[in-house]
Each structure stands twice: as C-alpha cells, then as structure tokens.
Write a structure and sequence with these properties.
The chain contains 5 helices and 9 strands; from the N terminus they run E-E-H-H-E-E-E-H-E-H-H-E-E-E. The longest helix has 12 residues, at 32-43. The model has no long low-confidence stretch (mean pLDDT 90). It is of the alpha+beta class. Helix 1 (32-43) crosses helix 3. The protein is globular. Strands 1, 2, 3, 4, 5, 6, 7, 8 and 9 form a 9-stranded mixed sheet that branches. The chain has helices at residues 32-43, 52-55, 106-117, 146-152, 159-164; strands at residues 2-13, 23-24, 58-65, 68-74, 88-104, 137-141, 169-175, 184-192, 199-211.
C-alpha cells in the first residue's frame, strides 16, 4: 500500500458534512468527502462519475494548527429578477493547517499524485472561495502505512504558532476499522457528487493524538551508506 499526504492550509477553509439550506456549517477538520472531491477534481472527473475507488481509500487527518471558527453573514439578489434571496450564514475555519492522507494501492496513489501535481481543476479547501495558500502535495510514502505517515510528517504549522505552542499534541482523525467502535460518525462517504442529488453515507471516525515529530530524525540516514 502507498500513502499520499496533502498539506491543507489557507486563509479560510470550510468542510461541511451536514450543511443544508441557509446555514452552511463546517467541521473542525477536513472531511473525507471534501478531500476526495479535491482529488476527483484534480483528476478531472465529472460530478456524475463513479467514486467507489476513491471511497475505498483509507483516510486520515492530522490537525497541525486548529485555526479559529468564523461566521460570515451573506445577502444576495437573484441575478435576473433582482429579488432578494434568503439570508444565509456560512461558517469557516480561519488560519488553520492540516495534513490529510489517503492510503491505497500503489497504482491508484500514483495516479492521484500525478493529478495533484498537474490538476485539471484547481484545488480548493472545501469551497471554491477557499483556495490553498501553497501547493498541497506532500509526496507519496511507500514505506509507511497511513498512521505512521501522518505521525512522521514534518509539523506544518506556521512559525508564529510553533513559537506559542512548542510541544502540543497533534490530533488525529482516522477512518474507523470495521471491527471497532467509532468515536463519532459523519455523513461523509460520498456516493455521488451529482448536483441534482448529492448523496453521502455514514463514515465512522476514530480520534487519537500524536506528539510533534522532530524537525530532524537522526535515524533517517541509517543504512544509506
């Protein structure tokens, strides 16, 4: 199995799993459906395309910099009639940084890696109004499983955040194993992104935490000579 890691950082992010109508909420960390949407867009898949191969990937997120939740109150008018549209609230996570990982067969991960490095549609962090502040690609890991890859990836937080929080624990949100009890569930496994009837099934999530990985791993060069 191989693991593709992504750095998800930007001024605003919004990862809704239960957003409906005029109140568009966000989770505190990237959702699986949101990240798979980013990957599917990078590959140029149409919204009606089959997603079963992506949903089968293992998924996890590390919270490197939690950010702050903010609310945006929006008004709008119909473009043709000028009639006032319903008022809406939209929630975002500001100034956050996450490391997300997907795990699957080397062939599938290699295709996703190539797509992320040369995307058909530009990536966004949950909503089109939330572009990433830097390239999202953190590379492919063939020697580690998903959990180890997330634990060992360099800390991606901003310098100012690292100065204020020198030894924090980084939260982990992982796909729950089929034989385990999830800590919570989200309607977050996409069945279809078709605009006419988007559908999602439940996904169990397991929570844990890991220490900040060292900036320099003195064992990294062992065995290379």
């Amino acid at each position: 199995m191989s693991v593709l890691l992504l750095r998800l950082a930007g001024p605003l992010q919004s990862w809704g799993s239960a957003a409906r109508f005029v109140r568009r909420t966000t989770e505190n960390a990237p959702t699986k459906s949101g990240v798979l949407g980013l990957l599917a867009a990078a590959q140029g898949r149409e919204r009606e395309a089959d997603l079963s191969d992506l949903v089968a990937l293992g998924f996890g997120v590390r919270i490197d910099q939690p950010g702050t939740r903010v609310r945006d109150f929006q008004t709008a008018h119909h473009a043709v009639t000028g009639k006032s549209m319903p008022l809406s609230e939209r929630f975002y996570v500001a100034d956050a940084v996450f490391v997300a990982g997907v795990e699957g067969s080397p062939g599938v991960i290699a295709e996703l890696y190539a797509a992320v490095r040369s995307p058909v549609y530009l990536p966004y962090l949950g909503r089109r109004s939330c572009p990433p502040s830097a390239p999202v690609d953190l590379g492919v890991h063939d020697e580690l499983d998903l959990v180890e890859a997330l634990k060992r990836a360099p800390w991606q937080a901003s310098d100012w955040f690292k100065k204020r929080h020198s030894e924090p624990e980084l939260g982990l949100l992982l796909d729950c194993r089929p034989d385990a009890e999830p800590d919570f569930s989200l309607r977050d496994a996409p069945i279809t992104f078709d605009k006419r009837h988007r559908r999602y099934s439940l996904r169990g999530v397991t929570t844990s935490a890991t220490a900040v990985p060292p900036d320099h791993d003195p064992t990294s060069v062992l065995g290379t000579v």
